Amino acid sequence: GGLGDVLGGLPPAMAANGHRVMTVSPRYDQYKDAWDTSVLVDIEVGGRVETVRFFHCYKRGVDRVFVDHPLFLERVWGETGSKIYGPRTGMDYTDNQFRFSLLCQAALEAPRVLNSNSNKYFSGPYGDDVVFIANDWHTALLPCYLKTIYKPKGIYKNAKVAFCIHNIAYQGRFPSSDFSLLDLPDNLKGSFDFIDGYHKPVKGRKINWMKAGILESDRVVTVSPYYAQELVSGEDKGVELDNIIRKTGITGIVNGMDVQEWNPATDKYLDIKYDNTTVLDAKPLLKEALQAEVGLPVDRNIPVIGFIGRLEE
């Protein structure tokens, strides 16, 4: 989806501007270029200690880091039909909080423990002077752990967090009693506290990960200036977080396009490559090929309209 596109295209663009850039995501599969770094880290989650390992590859100026733990892999390798967040629409896996808490803590460790030397301009660990860009509710605990575990020890003193909202509809709402599973001090409870009219996942008081991410980060951003306006326009469009976002402020930065990946002159998915000089010859042929592939009448004079959007209740 959109988040995948951003994580694919934005980091190489930042690296091209001279930044040192690392992405951290769960290791849901044996990605063919990612190698085991053999770096292990023990993380305390839900009252028990879990060991994660880091896999790594370097592409287009970016350190791609994958957090390896059986709970990430089995979601995709098991019987779940490669579903990452829940067995079906509207249902969460019961271990989601556990898994994404693990991801957040691993992401805080990665810049300090991984000794990456792929880039000729940078070498060694990233160290403490970093900016974390946390994306959507799954990463909302990162600023919370940063504030309560690291900064009191004098680690990441200058580090900042930008929280990016890609889709306000998914907020990570869980039963209020689950706060105790997150290994956070009680003084952060207010940032999570949430009451809504829905009875899912439970009736009444809940915790809301996204609310906490918004409140505990240094800056809140989203994927376009128009979406930023929409999120503060009312309870409906802001899905009950509009008041919180009005309080913190939000900056809309339009999603860019990766011109290397979406380049018709080199696109491996196009049977006929084209540029601005050959586009008028190539497009009718590509249209006919598409019509044939999807079983439409093959006629280059019929307009074909494509729509990219969310199919959702």
TrEMBL record:
InterPro entries: Starch_synth_cat_dom
Key word Transferase present: yes
Highest taxon of source: Eukaryota
Keyword Cytoplasm: no
Domain Starch synthase catalytic: 1-247
Swiss-Prot/TrEMBL GO biological process terms: starch biosynthetic process
Gene3D superfamilies: Glycogen Phosphorylase B
Listed PANTHER family: GRANULE-BOUND STARCH SYNTHASE 1, CHLOROPLASTIC/AMYLOPLASTIC, GRANULE-BOUND STARCH SYNTHASE 1, CHLOROPLASTIC_AMYLOPLASTIC
Protein name (database record): Granule-bound starch synthase
